[in-house]
Specification:
homodimer, 136 residues, alpha+beta, Arc Repressor Mutant, subunit A, Dna Ligase, domain 1, 2 domains, four-stranded mixed sheet, DNA-binding
DNA sequence: GTAATTGCAAAAATTTTGCCTCATA
DNA sequence: TATGAGGCAAAATTTTTGCAATTAC
């Protein structure tokens, strides 16, 4: 009854995974491609993209998708946080949530800190409904 | 001595600004284009991009650039935060910063919350140096 | 052996630019 | 009227996809 999703650990997949586990730079797909190519010169960029796409929902890697792949804009310049629906990408305001964020660390890890961004992740009303229907 | 940066408030710029001030959806450039086009059908997508680019550093709008325009990946799946250099885009880990984040709000604004993302913004060591040199 | 996965290359999607015209200040 | 800004279309970037050939299991 339970169809195992058969997946294979190819050289390429292993190399991508190892590379991501080794570096601390949070590389872009392009950068991963360049790094893995030193070990597997014949790997293609498409394969890198497909594997990143595959490994991320599998929980093997993290995808720092700030707000999906497109940039988003906001007419309100006063400080506020956001909630983003991880299912449909919708972004909304989070008004006045009592987040106690340690006032400021002037430097962190060598960085001169000028601010922070807090984003909640979840399911919006519409997707919540959709998900409920789909999940038995 | 102080050269005023002369800029003009064109119809297009005003329309883009008004649109962003009116909606709460954090639209993408494409979506802004579609919305503004209802008022100014002859506006071009290039103009929208140029204005978003212009208005954002001017402080008139906010640009939710999660991690720049490219996606980034991370081999560490255990929970941690990030610092991003707003100058060069570099992203690093932030290990064990004592952030006191209110445990959980199960729902926020209708969203079922499953997590959050905290990102510090600042200047990395290299850019800090560069910036100092440039700023008299 | 079979089907998941790759390489390649073309297509799609998103963003930036050049160039000439228009119109704000 | 001088020049910042717009329109248009081409180019540059980034990501996705179709398909035949490979290869892990």
């Amino acid at each position: 009854m339970s169809e195992e999703t058969a997946f294979r650990m190819t050289e390429q997949r292993r190399a991508i995974l190892e590379t991501l586990h080794r570096v601390r730079t949070h590389p872009t797909a392009d950068e991963v491609y360049a790094m893995v190519r030193e070990e597997l010169p014949r790997i293609s960029l498409g394969t890198v993209y497909r594997n990143l796409e595959f490994l991320s929902p599998a929980g093997a890697i993290l995808r720092l998708d700030g707000c999906g792949s497109q940039m988003r804009f906001d007419g309100t310049t006063k400080v506020h946080d956001h909630v983003r629906c991880t299912s449909c990408g919708r972004v909304d305001y989070v008004p006045g949530i009592p987040v106690t964020l340690k006032k400021t660390h002037p430097t962190v890890n060598g960085y001169e800190i000028i601010g922070h961004r807090l984003e909640y992740l979840g399911y919006c009303r519409a997707c919540k409904r959709g998900r409920k229907r789909r999940t038995p």
